[in-house]
Amino acid sequence: MPPDFRPLALTFVLALGLLFLFAAPAAASSSSSQPSPQAASDESDLICHTSNPEECYPRVFVPTHEFQTVHDDQQLPNGLHVRLNIWTGQKEAKINVPDEVNPDLDGLPVDQAVVLVDQEQPETPQIPKGAPKYDNAGKIKEPAQEGDAQTEAIAFAETFNMLKTGESPSEEEFDNGLEGLEELSHDIYYGLKITEDADVVKALFCLMGARDGDASEGATPRDQQAAAILAGALSNNPKALAEIAKIWPELLDSTCPRADGATIFDHFYQDTVSVTDSPAKVKAAVSAINGLIKDEEIRKQFLDNSGMRQLLTVLLEERPEWAGAQRKVAQLVLDTFLDEDMGAQLGQWPKGKASANGVCAAPETALDDGCWDYHAERMVKLHGTPWSKELKQRLGDARKANSKLPDHGEL
């Protein structure tokens, strides 16, 4: 290197060294003040609603082979096995395993997607063409499993399993299933299948007594739908009623998932019929009660536990939208207790004489058993319909027949 260039090169090297010396701390400071790309990614993938890091959870649900709770603000990957608790609304998910058998359904006999009950079938003669589905002993024939009937059978089994396990893929599917089950419940065969499973019957009674009306948008409230299913299953179906009668004491002692310790007995005798519900729910509930008290023991218990008091509350209403529910109550009373031509057993109810008008007009005594006549008279003035007039007339006849029983006052 020529002598003239040495001072210039030395100066350049010194300047370059100073430049690196000042730049290094700044770079270090910059790198320490910002998280790494991996750290930033990890932090953004968590959802934290509190300052406690243990309460954070992944933004995208991480499935395992066991069911885990899915939070409302989590994202669910496709292809998982998702279930919804129909009582709490809590959603759970896990890795989907094709053809996995639900242990809760272990031992449940299923044939062509229809739940069946194993029972010995006695030999019967050849049924002639055009004969009814069941013989005079009550044998019920299974629907043919083809076409629309097969589709109905599959839909029935799916909703049946939702009620039995308390699990559903979604609220919409559960509500749609209940609607379909209500339609099928009027069929003698399916009505019997519903009542043959104690867990399903319990679930329907719990829904009927819930009175919260939970349902997805546009669907019929579940308490009303459950009452309609029970009413349909029991309508003109003595075998279905016999199945519920078998488990009646145990059923009433059961508690529901959302009942806070209250039993089905508590709900059935306090909340099944209430004017705080909709008229449509009350109509369905009265129809279910009408089917249940066809059984002698259930009817006796219903009378002993002031069940008629619940029904009388409906007659106190004067709003026009309650006319249909009031007619339903009148039909129950006439068919069960007052009209012998409709199968009523006379003398079981009412007991004693009618109460005085002043007693029945007072709010604190308006629901006394002797006040049915007073409120039937109100129905005649309010509606003037044949059913209200017949109810008033037959109540009066029954009171005369019971004139020797303890007096409740003069009407």
TrEMBL record:
Keyword field contains Transport: yes
Keyword entries, A-Z: Endoplasmic reticulum, Protein transport, Signal, Translocation, Transport
Superkingdom classification of source: Eukaryota
Record-linked Gene3D superfamilies: Leucine-rich Repeat Variant (1.25.10.10)
GO MF term (any one): adenyl-nucleotide exchange factor activity
Residues that span the membrane, as ranges: none
GO biological process terms, semicolon-separated: protein transport
Signal peptide: 1-28
Pfam name, any one: SIL1
Cellular component aspect of the GO annotation: endoplasmic reticulum
Self-association and partners: Interacts with KAR2.
Family listed: Belongs to the SIL1 family.
Protein name: Nucleotide exchange factor SIL1
